[in-house]
Amino acid sequence: MQSDSAFFLSGLSEETMVNEEKLLVPTDMYLKSGIHIGTKFRTKYMEPFIYKTRPDGLSVLNLQKIDERLKIAANFLAQYNPEDVVVACRRENGWKAARKFGAVTGIRTFAGRYQPGVMTNPALEQYTEAKLVMVVDAWPDRNIVMDAVGMGIPVIALCDTNNQANDIDVVVPCNNKGKKSLGLAFWILAREYLKARGAIKGDEEFVEKLEDFTEE
After folding, report:
1. Neighbours of 178 (CB within 10 A)
2. What does the pLDDT read at residue 20?
3. Ranges of the chain with pLDDT below 50
């Protein structure tokens, strides 16, 4: 039986293999996190990002598209000051990653329940203004997505193969359920955000460890 790594690598084009150095992280780092492993359900929205369906029924996301969308999301995030961005993660597997991302970038994060109206009702104690929202999963994080849509605020969303992408401005295809996958995604986004904002000059200046973003 093929391993996940062998299964995916067998589908990489020669060009992709040659351009390995252009990826945000080495291919093996992506594969070990399981960031490419989707679910047994696939929506029409996510079909363009799916590479193949395995014999066991699980869909496999295209690694190159994951990398490309992480770059797009990081560059989009970098257009905004930290205080203008809100990140929400209702899924417990992503709490550590989201909180660490917030600590590293200065971006406000809601790890756990987001109370409806936080961005729309100034009377609430937690009221905060935002110009950009990022969520880990548009379904459990639907309260903040609805608030953002109602106010015309763009939304970035990490999306698995089973996600709907309506109301989402930037889709980042990835396994948005696994601890290691979410840890890697937030680690990459934090590094690329700081680079794009000029806070660090290169990868070597990003001293945060991946394991600090990842739940055991």
Report:
1. 20
2. 62
3. 1-18
- Cβ(213)–Cβ(186) under 8 Å? yes
Give the Cα separation of 81 and 79 in Å (integer): 7
CA 77 to chain centre: 12
Q: Which two tokens stand for residue 26?
A: 């080495």
**Domain ranges within the chain, ordered by starting residue:** 4-212
Rounded to 10 deg, the angle between the 95-105 and 179-196 helix axes is 10
- In DSSP terms, 89 is beta-bridged to 111
Cβ-based neighbours of 147, under 8 Å, separated by 6 or more: 116, 117, 118, 119, 120, 153
SS3 11: coil
Enter the tokens of residue 101: 């991302």
pTM, 2 dp? 0.90
**56 Cβ contact list (under 8 Å, min separation 6):** none
Cα–Cα separations (whole angstroms), residue 180 to 21, 66, 71, 108: 22, 15, 19, 22
Q: In this predicted model, what pLDDT tens digit does every residue of 35-88 receive, in sequence order? A: 999 999 999 999 999 999 999 999 999 999 999 999 999 999 999 999 999 999
**Cβ atoms within 10 Å of 37's Cβ, excluding its own:** 22
Which CATH class for the 4-212 domain? alpha beta
pLDDT at 21: 61
Strand-strand pairing, 50-53 and 59-61: antiparallel
Cβ–Cβ < 8 Å for 144, 110 = yes
